[in-house]
Amino acid sequence: MTPDQESNAKVSPVDCNKTLMIDQYTSDAEPGNPEFVEDIQSISDAFAHFKPKVEVDVTDENGETVNETLKFGEIRDFEAQGGKGRLVENSEFLSGVKSKIDTNVKIRKSIEQSRKLREILKDEKAKAEFKELLEAMLEEIESGK
Predict the structure, then answer these.
(1) Which of 71, 79, 91, 102 is the most interior residue, by most CB within 10 Å?
(2) Distance of CA 95 to the CA centre of its chain
């Protein structure tokens, strides 16, 4: 236990094998005037009381800026890696990007697994014909026929 410099209260140091991350995750908090709440007993209570959220600007594939508000209801909402987190799931923009990536991965795997398709893509004439076919199919899909 070490004393805090400002309040002189005893504070437990963070263990060497743990990371403590402190940041402001809401844009509506007034700096220098923290809110003291006594009845918070758990992390869930803290999330329920403070309802952290942050506005972010991201750039889409066309170079346009997309504004989105990310809301956090639990620790997993901050995580994106390993499938454990919900950051991507809770973001409409990131979910859309992930969906496009997943679709491209499926198409690539299909191409890699199809011997006939690989042969078509090796031959320039067959490749051009295949491209025309795909463009015609896309046009048909977009026109709603």
Answers:
(1) 91
(2) 7
| Whole-prediction pTM | 0.59
DSSP string over 24-89: ---SSPPTT-PPP-S---SHHHHHHHH--EEEEEEE-TTS-EEEEEEE-SSGGGG--GGGT--TTT
Phi, psi torsion values for 65, nearest 5 degrees: -85, 130
Who's near 3: CB < 8 A, 6+ residues apart?
A: 9, 10, 11
String of DSSP letters for 106-142 = HHHHHHHH-HHHHHHHHSHHHHHHHHHHHHHHHHHHH
The values of phi and psi at residue 29, to 5°, are -80, 140
